[in-house]
Amino acid sequence: MFKKEFQKSFNNKMVYLDSGATSMKLDLVVESEIEFLTKFNTNTHNEVSESSSKINELIENLRVKVKEFLNTKEGNVAFVSGTTYASNQLAFGLIEEINAKHEVVVTAVEHSSNLLPWIEISNKTGAKLNYFDLNNDGTIDIKSINKVVNKNTKIVSFAHISNTLGYENDVKKIVEEIKKINENTLIFIDCAQSISHEKINVFEWGVDAITFSTHKMYGPFGLGILWAKDTILNRLKPLVLGGGNIVSVERNSFQLSDGPHKLEAGTMNLSSIYAFDKLLDWYQKTDINNIKSYELKLKKYFVSEFNKLNDDEIIIYNLDNNQSSILFNIKGVSSQDFAIFLEKKYQIITRAGQHCAQLTKELTNSKTTVRATLSIVNTKADIDKLIEAFKDKDKWSEYII
Ligand SMILES: Cc1ncc(COP(=O)(O)O)c(C=O)c1O
Predict the structure, then answer these.
(1) CATH number at residue 380
(2) pLDDT tens sequence across 28-49
(3) Are residues 111 and 160 in the same domain?
(4) Distance CA 318, CA 10 (A)
């Protein structure tokens, strides 16, 4: 149903099950990037150039469009290089406000990009770093939030959907619980793994900032979104200084611009921004609920075919989630070896290792795993191929040098 919209970046023989790392790019995204590079290829802030003014206007309109996509009228949107940059910007942008009396709370299944900055902040400021208790599926245990959130909690940051086990946190409920304990706690949500699968309702969630990358939503590389309430944006110190984020400069001082511009020093990734604008039109037309229900059908088909195998040598850690991630191991086989076998014999692209979320091992009891992620570029035929490979799993060693 969707695959025909990915002809340009897709090798049809390949079974692409690595959308969690980066998605295939929609044809319209590839075409839009080319269109920008061949028709405009201009930089911003050139008041005498018509095409420069056009891209300036597009960027300002796009901030509003992103907010509509996220279902909020509040706050503003900064265009940065990715989720990693955005998480670092949130953490280090507030470092001067954080001290040893404060506490920060995260989960042990965060992607490194939403964990390392907070470990560093805690080491540098003396703030205590707490970890939520998790349910067996890796989601936050809502009943025990009061064990880690208290009057000193300055910041809570966690992923909407984890990039390993893939279960979904009930953000709205978690926020309600946190606010009951401490209404001043700032709450940041990493939406890198949910943005292409779920409707995000920032207004309903009542959070303070969210982050995501466009390359994981069938869009361009090198572009990330940091949405934040104005109260946060006004407080954030930019990670990077330079052209575009200042109002005036003296020999020994400068005045930063307001709002999101101050976080966007240097030349922005304009061809990606241009393509992202078109991508949001596609999401509007396609309706994310259709994406979700297509993926859910695929997942259900996988589960039913997998159960027919009745093979206890294949351990799947998250079979019962309603999401696209399938995290597994074959007993006695290294995850890397099995992923090589899948690619060499079946042209199935998965990912093996720790998936930049090393503490997930606390839940899986396995240091490394294979991750297959389903998305709208997949069909039932791809799942049949994975099942065929599972049936053939004993041949893995023939493909390892
Ligand atoms: C949950 C999560 N957060 C953050 C990131 C980092 O995204 P990026 O590499 O685009 O900055 C990823 C990437 O896999 C992720 O899955």
Answers:
(1) 3.90.1150.10
(2) 999 999 999 999 888 887 777 7
(3) yes
(4) 28
For residue 98, what is the domain's CATH number?
Answer: 3.40.640.10
CA of 290 from ligand 1 middle (Å) equals 24
Among 19, 23, 83, 197, say which to mutate for ligand 1: greatest number of ligand atoms within 8 Å of CB: 83
> What secondary structure letter does DSSP report for 364?
H
Q: Is 193 in the pocket of ligand 1 (CB under 6 A)?
A: yes
Rounded to the nearest whole angstrom, what is the distance from the C-alpha of residue 358 to the centroid of ligand 1? Answer: 14
Mutate to test the pocket of ligand 1, among 23, 356, 375 (most ligand atoms within 8 A of CB): 356
Same domain? 99 vs 149: yes
pLDDT of amino acid 224: 98
Task: Give yes or no: residues 293 and 248 share one domain.
Answer: no
Tell me what pLDDT residue 245 has: 82
Residues paired with residue 158 on neighbouring β-strands, in sequence order: 189
| pLDDT value, residue 303 | 97
Residues 90 and 221 reside in one and the same domain? yes
Sheet containing 224-228, strands listed edge to edge, beginning at the edge strand earlier in sequence = 76-80, 224-228, 209-213, 186-190, 153-159, 103-106, 128-131
Three-state secondary-structure class, residue 400 = coil
Structure tokens at 335: 């995850």
Question: What range does the domain containing 346 cover?
Answer: 3-22+287-399
**Given 269, 286, 303, which residue is the final one in a domain?**
286
Q: What is the DSSP string of 228-287?
A: E-HHHHHHPPPSS-STTSEEEE-SS-EEEPSGGGGG--S---HHHHHHHHHHHHHHHHH-
Over 90: is that where the pLDDT of 356 sits? no
* Ligand 1 centroid – CA 43 distance (Å): 28
CA of 372 relative to ligand 1 center, distance in Å: 16
Q: What is the pLDDT of residues 35-89, one digit of tens each?
A: 999 998 888 877 777 777 889 999 999 999 999 999 999 999 999 999 999 999 9
The reply to whether 39 and 173 lie within a common domain is yes
Number of domains in the chain: 2
Q: What is the pLDDT of residues 185-242, one digit of tens each?
A: 999 999 999 999 999 999 999 999 999 999 999 999 999 999 999 999 999 999 999 9
